[in-house]
Write a structure and sequence with these properties.
Radius of gyration of chain A: 22 Å
Strand content of chain B: under 5%
Distance between the termini of chain B: 76 Å
Helix content of chain A: over 70%
Largest sheet of chain B: none
Largest sheet of chain A: 2 strands, antiparallel
Oligomer: heterodimer
Number of helices of chain A: 23
Number of strands of chain B: 0
Helix content of chain B: over 70%
Chain lengths: 498, 166
């Protein structure tokens, strides 16, 4: 009974209800506007909610988080600019659909499957949080390292046309992520004697440069072609269409929840893995992947939304953030005198159930706002590109500047934008660069921990992998991804098909 | 039979740059801690830059073997005038952001860019620029409290004056 009253607390308290609704609404737009990230919005929120009571502060932040993860898909579909890293995969099939005049249909299906994914993630949080913590706690550094390698290798599969270009992009991303002082030894890496590089390159500047500026520059080629009038009819998808998406959606929601629950991995990796999974299990989609396949929308959007619930699992049970936003939320809980971790579940279970209730409510608001506010939102793309492109550039500049209040970040953004533009022109995928930057730290830290724990013995590390069932499964998955991208594998498949 | 796609203008130079850049990164990564230990701070940077050298080398070889395409030109298809103007304008924006401030720099940038790209009248360009900057200012500065450079505009005084009106 007490659990139910705690879950219903955000519904019964009007103030909390309003804050969750306002947060979700704002989150959708924050997630959608290129250059504004959920991480940034939640960080800023901490600065003016720390004097609030913990419940209203959490209600607002949870709303922004939930809305923001979904909101990223909108600009991915309408402008081919993912509002958040978790929407990178969504752009691959969402934008082609918008170009075909099916933006309304794409956003409608994305909204419904995001709700389904979000619901499954929250359900998993409520049902499995205590028991899953036992599983996640057994992860060794070598497992995290394998997980990071797995994520990077997936980019090869995602880059489509040229695996080698995908690998180069991913490696470049890792190198960018390594710039700055080494956190363990405080030794400079790729700093080249420039003091400003000691703190590293702002990830937001890289992301805005690669996806905001490079995209805007590329669109200049077609600036004078009239803007596509996006059809927004048929927003609410038919039950038959939703039912068709359900089997894949349920599978990719499970992937999203599990990946989200792994500490350090979030919706971005979950979405890319789910997209890759969808490509593998749907060999003959109605529309090919990359050209507007509905499966290419269902998989990443169910996964990144279910990863929200998943990300709260290690945060609430272990005190380890599932992703960047939950890391900031841990900071917010500390500010409010709470200590997330196993003891929080024991001493203050009401806090856990309140979070479950707020997440569920935010998910419902996301569905309502998502299905009702599309027409207004879509008007953005009906603006002539000659106006829209300069505005995107200003938003990108503001976003890059706002990270550290530094003009240097604007120069970085421009540099990466120009570089990203040339990469695009010559067929290099940009998604892997961002993925590499995200995974750089995870890979580096855990490689070093793993090899130190084996007394610098590579053979010892391999022995550890082979003798641990969990590591072995991860290692086998890595090998399978490599193998499935080799010409030999393609030749065998072609022979099988013939 | 699959036909080999033609090499685009500047593609060889760009890929050569990436290859040389990867070599430079490897040399820099080696300088961090050499082959001291597998757990050294330079281990992952070295492995990463080695991967870059291998992949950039393979791509460079592939591009080198492609036939040169004749349908495209560097200034016509890869770096047309609009791209150069936009890059210069963004660089100027960044340069003037601190001394002039966010509001005048953004209005100027939008005005010039919209005029250049759309060839519409100055009235339209000024109206859209001022309206857009007002909206961005409202969202970023007033709602998200993002600090933007004030420059020559006495924002504090103006906001205080508005505050006194209510």
């Amino acid at each position: 009974m007490e659990i139910i009253s705690n879950i219903l607390m955000p519904v019964t308290d009007l103030k909390l209800l309003f804050l969750v609704a306002a947060g979700t609404f704002a989150g959708i737009y924050v997630g959608a506007i290129p250059g504004l990230s959920v991480t940034m919005a939640v960080s800023i929120l901490i600065s003016f909610t720390f004097s609030w009571d913990v419940y209203p502060a959490l209600a607002l932040m949870i709303g922004i988080y939930m809305g923001g993860v979904y909101g990223g898909s909108r600009t991915a579909i309408l402008l081919n600019i993912p509002g958040a890293p978790s929407a990178i995969a969504t752009a691959m099939d969402g934008f082609p659909l918008a170009q075909q005049g099916k933006a309304g249909e794409a956003i409608g299906i994305v909204t419904v499957v995001s709700f389904i994914g979000g619901f499954i993630g929250i359900l998993a949080l409520a049902l499995f949080a205590p028991s899953l913590s036992d599983f996640a706690i057994r992860f060794q550094p070598r497992d995290f390292m394998l997980l990071a390698i797995m994520g990077i290798l997936l980019v090869g599969s995602l880059s489509g046309e040229s695996l080698i270009k995908g690998v180069f992009s991913g490696a470049l991303g890792i190198a960018i992520g390594a710039v700055g002082m080494d956190p363990l030894t405080v030794q400079d890496r790729f700093v080249f004697g420039i003091d400003e590089l000691r703190g590293g390159v702002s990830f937001v500047a890289v992301m805005i440069g690669m996806f905001g500026v490079a995209e805007a520059l590329a669109q200049l080629h077609t600036v004078n072609t009239p803007a596509v009038k996006q059809k927004v009819s048929g927003i609410i998808p038919s039950w038959a269409k939703v039912r068709k998406c359900l089997p894949l959606g349920l599978q990719t929601s499970t992937i999203g929840t599990v990946v989200g629950a792994l500490p350090g991995t979030g919706g971005d990796i979950a979405a890319l893995m789910a997209y890759d999974y969808a490509k593998r299990v749907t060999p003959k989609p109605e529309t090919p992947f990359g050209k507007g396949a509905i499966e290419g929308l269902v998989a990443p959007e169910t996964a990144n939304n279910s990863a929200v619930g998943g990300a709260f699992i290690p945060m609430m049970t272990l005190g380890i953030p599932g992703d960047a936003v939950t890391a900031i939320m841990i900071g917010a809980l500390f500010i409010h005198g709470l200590n997330p971790g196993p003891m929080l579940m024991v001493e203050q279970p009401h806090m856990f159930w309140f979070i479950v209730g707020a997440l569920m409510l935010a998910n419902i608001f996301m569905l309502i706002f998502g299905l009702t506010g599309i027409r207004l939102f879509v008007k953005i793309v009906e603006l002539p590109r000659t106006v829209l492109l300069p505005v995107i550039l200003v938003l990108s500049i503001v976003g890059a500047y706002a990270v550290n209040n530094s003009v240097t970040d604007v120069y970085w953004m421009l540099g990466f934008g120009v570089f990203g533009y040339f990469m695009r022109e010559y067929g290099y995928p940009l998604g892997p660069v961002i993925l590499g930057v995200i995974l750089s730290r995870l890979l580096d830290d855990n490689w070093r921990r793993a090899i130190i724990s084996e007394q610098e013995s590579f053979l010892g590390l391999m022995r550890g992998i082979v003798t641990s069932p969990l590591s072995l499964v991860l290692f086998a998955t890595v090998c399978l991804i490599i193998l499935s991208n080799t010409p030999l594998w393609r030749m065998i498949r072609r022979q099988k098909e013939a | 039979m699959q036909t080999t796609p033609a090499r685009r203008p500047g593609e060889l130079i760009f890929n050569l740059f990436l290859f040389l850049f990867s070599l430079f990164l490897f040399w820099s990564a080696y300088g961090i801690s050499g082959f001291e230990a597998l757990s050294s701070p330079g281990a992952v940077p070295m492995a990463t830059s080695a991967t870059m050298i291998y992949s950039a080398g393979a791509i460079l070889w592939e591009v080198f073997r492609k036939p040169q395409g004749s349908a495209e030109t560097l200034t016509g298809n890869i770096v047309p005038q609009s791209i150069v103007v936009t890059i210069v304008m963004v660089a100027l924006y960044a340069l003037l952001l601190q001394p002039l401030g966010f509001i005048p720099t953004s209005i100027l940038f939008l005005m010039v860019m919209i005029r250049y790209l759309s060839r519409r009248g100055w009235g339209f360009c000024i109206g859209v620029s001022v309206g857009t900057v007002a909206l961005i200012y409202l969202i970023f500065r007033l709602i998200f409290t993002v600090l933007m450079p004030q420059g020559i505009v006495p924002e504090g005084e103006i906001l205080a004056w508005f505050g006194n009106l209510f």
